[in-house]
Specification:
The complex is a heterodimer of chains A (414) and B (482). By secondary structure, chain A is mainly alpha-helical. Chain A is built from 18 helices and no strands. Helices cover 76% and strands 0% of the residues of chain B. The mean pLDDT of chain B is 85. Classes of the chains: A mainly alpha (414), B mainly alpha (482). The interface between A and B is large, with 51 and 49 residues.
Chain lengths: 414, 482
């Protein structure tokens, strides 16, 4: 048995994400002893496996991932934000998967087979009206589109990053998006055999991609919470995968695995990072604790966000450019223009975000005699603490992972 | 208390150091994108592919570094929030340059004869012009920046002069990229000439010499970039002309910060007056000649409607350039007033100072560049060339009449000067106020369109469910409605 898979970043990326999640768990559940504190890792581990499996995922796995994510979010009923997020996801994922299932069953009923390749072959024989399969095909894609998180379904990644736990949110988002992309890729297998169906799909995906890019860019420019910005960047990553599914020559081999590995690592880093950033109040605020107390870690932590936004030179940048190249090769420059708008919005948002995070050092004026606290007050005041070391190590791990991806891709000549 | 002071001083020092290092790195990247690109493409270094737009990437990185330097200085300034808000816009030119690099990177991947293959080079040209124009205050988004001082205390009045210079360098380095697109080139030319006019009006209207010098830098950078747009001269000659004009202004501005050294003594004042006039006239002469030479070609064109439009545009451009050149010559000659000596005992200065040498260099650089242009075979049409010199001569003569011996030769000249200065100020304010209103109206319209979309979205869980159901019903119904 060969062990070369151990050297693959598709394996190491989820492992590093799990490691970062473990460190973050150590902060959240610090008082419970190491084994009890780290027990939730057993629950998120299947999500990491889902990210690693990428295109091998079946629709049933997507269903399981969705169920697991909702269960993780719904566990703590006292946390209102998290519970609301669980409710929204349960409703939307539940309904979309049900509709997709209905679409798949309709296709099976129309064609008399459940195998994709056979379905296209049957539909190629023009013996009946095409109305039914034209309805069934878009419906069967709906579940995947919702799970990929592109607008108009872009609300869930932002909700997840704002409401979910910092250790769980990145893995949940990445697993759902990877499952969604695998769902659509699997549904479209062999579609070239039926050009009519390919045209229907291209029309649907083009509109969806265009809307996702425009709405994603507009949303990014409006958002003020760093967690929600990361969520919208995640939704734009889902849109990149959609763009690649649209590519006339198909997705380049290995692209999907690279995308998944990058997604999980960059979301882990950026998701953790966003928890220590201030809510945007213009670039003249005083900045966040991470930059004030741990400037070097803060600078290292920037890498993940930059990579998500496609800043040139980062591994995420190469994914954005792959998508742009795929669109440039088509004869529709409209989507390419929209991709450019979304890229500009992402780029300027992460640049603005880090400036807001660094803020303006504005030390308070020295206390006058009248304002000076009494000795007893001074001693009981809580000490000023920085960012816990576990969180900083987790940031370093995620950033190192993203950097490692970049180096490996550069060596591979991607 | 002392410790807090020490920490504060250290913070400011480190911001100053980091900002300065970034600014130097940025300027170096702007100055040397081509050598850097050839170095990185060599087999014994990184051997980067020739299709990669390393020149554009270097320029984008350079602009990003300069924006970052301004931000570093601004956040450490005593009025940090104000300074940060004031220089925030500097990210936009950098962003535009990144867009240009991205478009250049994608262009080879476009399908042959597709819309993308035509659109990507145009996009790259538009983006690079956006970056250059915004740095030269040629777009209404950040037009009046030269009125304000920079964020670094030590060189506060000098620093904004760096930005139009950066803008010119960007346009000069990428000249082949943006002058290839006819639409972009003509739009850029018109905007640059309008900017030159507005900047000169502002320089003429402001009493403060340092501010006037900053606006002259903007005006001359715009004229030099317009010269690139006309594709009249060899790029190296254009660079020399720009160096002769703007280099002198930058030195004078730096000298103003060190006790107004360029205006100390009668000889030095006269020398700088001559240098400023010669530098700006040498720069504007070929530009005006090229614009004037274009007029007969448009008049005798066979296409009636485009020719009328071309004549109108060219006439307006000539008028804008002529007024700008005349006022620049006037300010260059008339405003260099010998600084009064307030010390009772004069400091023994050497006979030839750095200021003398710089003035001489400035004086010689412009004519030398024009001589080179003639020597390398630039086509010269004598009538447009002769007419091109007139505005500068008129401006210089009027200034001489107004300032010689501080006695007005023409009675009532001072009154006319005061009125015209006020007129210049009002014209500048009127144009910038109109532009601000236009930008405000456009952003207001965008907000009006987006506001209902935001109001529709409540964020409730039910809303998402209803939306999804609605979308699915639509997906079901649409195919039947075909």
């Amino acid at each position: 048995m060969t062990l070369t898979w151990l050297g693959s970043w598709t394996v190491w990326a989820p492992v590093l994400a799990l490691l970062a999640a473990a460190l973050r768990l150590g902060i959240d559940r610090g008082g419970r002893g190491p084994w009890t504190a780290l027990a939730p890792l057993l629950v998120v581990a299947p999500l990491a496996i889902a990210v690693q499996r990428t295109l091998a995922l079946e629709p049933i796995h997507a269903l399981l991932v969705a169920g697991l994510v909702v269960a993780i979010l719904a566990r703590d009923r006292d946390d209102l934000l998290q519970s609301e997020c669980a409710l929204k996801l349960a409703w939307v994922l539940g309904v979309s998967i049900a509709l997709s299932w209905a679409g798949t069953e309709l296709m099976a009923a129309v064609t008399g087979t459940r195998l994709n390749l056979e379905q296209w072959a049957v539909l190629a024989v023009p013996i009946a009206s095409s109305d039914l399969w034209r309805v069934a095909l878009p419906l069967s894609l709906l579940g995947g589109l919702v799970m990929m998180g592109g607008a108009p379904f872009h609300f869930w990644p932002a909700d997840l990053f704002q409401g979910g736990r910092a250790w769980a949110a990145p893995l949940c988002a990445a697993a759902l998006q990877v499952s969604g992309a695998a769902w659509i890729a699997r549904r479209l297998e062999g579609i070239d055999a039926l050009p009519e169906a390919r045209l229907v799909t291209i029309g649907l995906l083009s509109v969806t991609t265009g809307v996702a890019l425009v709405v994603g860019a507009a949303t990014l420019m409006q958002q003020r919470r760093p967690e929600r910005r990361i969520g919208t960047l995640a939704s734009l990553q889902g849109t990149l995968a959609l763009v690649m599914l649209l590519a006339p020559r198909g997705m380049p081999p290995g692209w999907f695995e690279h995308w998944a590995a990058h997604l999980v690592l960059a979301l882990t880093g950026a998701g953790l990072y966003s928890r220590f950033l201030p809510v945007a109040d213009g670039e003249s605020g005083t900045g966040g604790v991470l930059f004030r107390r741990h400037a070097f870690s803060a600078l290292i932590g920037l890498i993940s966000g930059f990579s998500l936004a496609g800043v040139p030179g980062t591994p995420g940048g190469s994914l954005w450019f792959d998508a742009a190249r795929a669109l440039a090769a088509t004869r529709h420059p409209g989507l390419l223009l929209l991709l450019g708008v979304a890229w500009l919005a992402s780029f300027s948002t992460v640049m603005r975000q880090w400036r807001e995070a660094a803020g303006i050092p504005d030390p308070p004026p020295p206390p006058t005699l009248a304002e000076k606290p009494a000795e007893s007050e001074a001693s009981t005041a809580p000490p000023v603490t920085g960012v816990p070391w576990q969180a900083r190590v987790a940031l370093w791990i995620a950033s190192a992972g993203v950097l490692g991806l970049g180096i490996v891709w550069a060596i591979e000549g991607r | 208390m002392a410790m807090r002071g020490a920490i504060e001083a250290r913070r400011r020092w480190s911001a100053k150091g980091v900002g300065t290092a970034l600014c130097i790195a940025g300027a170096a990247l702007l100055a040397t994108p081509r050598p850097l690109a050839s170095l990185l493409r060599r087999e014994d270094t990184l051997a980067l592919p020739a299709a990669w737009p390393i020149e554009n990437l270097a320029l984008a990185l350079g602009l990003e570094f300069i924006a970052l330097a301004f931000w570093c200085w601004a956040r450490a300034a005593a009025d940090g929030p104000n300074q940060v808000r004031r220089w925030n816009w500097l990210r936009r030119p950098a962003q535009a340059m990144w867009l240009c690099a991205a478009a250049s990177f994608l262009a080879p991947a476009a399908a042959p004869r597709s819309a993308a293959a035509q659109f990507l080079p145009e996009l790259a040209a538009a983006a690079v012009v956006w970056a250059g124009l915004e740095l030269m205050a040629a777009l209404p988004l950040a037009r009046p920046f030269s009125d304000l001082s920079g964020p670094l205390l030590a060189v506060r009045p000098w620093l904004p002069a760096l930005l139009p210079a950066a803008g010119f360098v960007v346009l000069w380095q990428t000249a082949s990229q943006w002058t290839g697109s006819e639409v972009v080139r003509r739009v850029a030319e018109a905007l640059l000439l309008l900017t030159a006019l507005l900047a000169t009006l502002r320089a003429f209207g402001r009493r403060q010499w340092a501010t006037a010098l900053r606006w002259l830098t903007v005006s001359e950078s715009a004229l030099a970039a317009a010269l690139i747009a006309t594709r009249t001269l060899d790029p190296t000659v254009t660079l020399m002309l720009w160096l002769g004009a703007c280099g002198g202004r930058s030195f004078m501005l730096a000298g103003e910060l060190r006790g107004a050294t360029p205006r100390r003594g009668a000889t030095l004042s006269r020398l700088w007056r001559a240098a400023g006039f010669t530098g700006s006239s040498a720069l504007s002469w070929p530009l005006l000649a090229a614009l004037i030479a274009r007029l007969p070609r448009a008049v005798f064109s066979l296409a009636p409607v485009p020719a009328t439009l071309e004549i109108t545009i060219t006439a307006l451009e000539i008028a804008a350039a002529a007024i700008a050149v005349m006022l620049t010559a006037y300010v260059s000659v008339g405003r260099v007033v010998r600084a009064t000596e307030r010390r009772s005992i004069m400091r023994p200065d050497p006979a030839v100072t750095l200021s003398h040498v710089s003035a001489l260099l400035t004086l010689l650089l412009g004519p030398a560049a024009l001589a080179i242009a003639v020597a390398i075979g630039t086509h010269v049409e004598w009538l447009p060339t002769a007419l091109g010199l007139v505005p500068a001569l008129v401006g210089g003569t009027l200034a001489m009449l107004g300032t010689r011996g501080r006695v007005p030769v023409v009675t009532g000249f001072e009154t006319v000067g005061g009125i015209s200065r006020r007129g210049a100020r009002d014209a500048f304010h009127a144009v910038t106020a109109f532009e601000r209103r236009l930008v405000g109206a456009l952003s207001g319209m965008a907000r009006t369109v987006l506001a209902p979309l935001r109001d529709l979205h409540t964020g409730d869980a039910q809303e998402y469910l209803l939306f999804l159901v609605g979308l699915s019903v639509l997906a079901l119904v649409l195919p039947f409605l075909r």
